[in-house]
Amino acid sequence: SKKLLLDVDCGVDDAQAIMLALAAPNVEVLGVTCVHGNTTLENVCKNTLRVLQACNKLEIPVFKGAAKPILGNNLSAGHFHGEDGLGDAPDPNAPGLDRLQEEGAVSLVATAPLTNLALAVRLDPSLPSKLRALYIMGGNTESRGNTTVCGEFNFAADPEAAYIVLKDYHCPLYLACWEFTCYNKLSWEFCEAWLAQDTDKARFMARIIRHSIEACKSESLQKEFVAGTGFVSCDSYAMAAAVDDSFITESDHYPVSVELTGTHTRGMMIMDTVGFLKERKAFIMKKVDMEKFKQMMIAALK
Ligand code: BDR
Ligand code: CA
């Protein structure tokens, strides 16, 4: 079976991605590490435990990671995910934080700002060589930002961390970038049928997703979502790629890096299609099997 380690800032699409992994056959989720991002680190830990509880998987260890980016201040994405990160759909039975844990061929899936991963490789430079592959939702390929003019949230929330990770994780690297996820939205018709499944997981998802669906449909956020309408479950693409090797049907293979300074471009991903950069190359998702994706999303709520 595939062994996955997940690094999340558990917002609504992280929840969907985690549920996708937990429902996948032949996948063992070894643990989940939490990092600041969509909301505070404390909320991220709570949310992760809530998602595991909704899936009856509280035995999976959850770890508390970095609360702040390497430089600068925290971002948050309450306008999209809700202030608490999970749609402000309170849960009186949420598991307590006392469940948090102190501490082969494993793949790592990061769907959050990359602070934990950057700190981890500084503490143990041999870590990347122990990984089968690293899958990241983050960065952009057309300079379209969703957080700053040119910055995608996970890279913009900690540009130095993204820089370190792209430079120092010398293992196969797969990227689900922002514009790609926008070009592959889930239609509203699909979402309706997906959420109407008669299961506790679907009812849990229907509660936490409401806020994000309203944000997706709102006039002010429409421009962010690049093309067309529908729900963008960004993190689930990185997870689906980690779960199923045949999910990606076409990818670009270019050196990638991140802007650390620039009047408008701090946090923007650079993809060198010309050949100037000596940086290692990443596989940048271009086409994926959307039928498979929908099946995995449906299975996630079964
Ligand atoms: C990323 O930012 C977060 O809000 C989402 O969970 C996703 O990881 C999209 O830019
Ligand atoms: Ca995320």
From TrEMBL:
SUPFAM superfamilies: Nucleoside hydrolase. It comes from the Eukaryota. InterPro entries: Inosine/uridine_hydrolase_dom (IPR001910), IUN_hydrolase (IPR052775), Ribo_hydro-like (IPR036452). It comes from Pogonophryne albipinna. Belongs to the IUNH family. Residues 5-295 form the Inosine/uridine-preferring nucleoside hydrolase domain. GO terms for molecular function: hydrolase activity, hydrolyzing N-glycosyl compounds. This is Inosine/uridine-preferring nucleoside hydrolase domain-containing protein. Pfam families: IU_nuc_hydro.
